[in-house]
Amino acid sequence: MLSSVDGALVPMPIDRTTIKPLYDPDFDERGVAGHLAKVCENRAPIVTGEDAV
Fold it and tell me: Are 19 and 12 in contact (CB under 8 A)?
C-alpha cells in the first residue's frame, strides 16, 4: 500500500524503503536504525495505531 506524504507516495507499513525517500536517500540499514533511535517517542500504553508507529 502507498501513502501520500507531502505529495510523495511512500510504502506503508513504515520500513527502510519508506524512511529513505523522506529523510535521507543515502541511509543504509544502520543509518535508518540510528535515525529511528534519535526520533522515537515512548508512547505507553499503546492505545491506537498512531501510538504504535
Answer: no
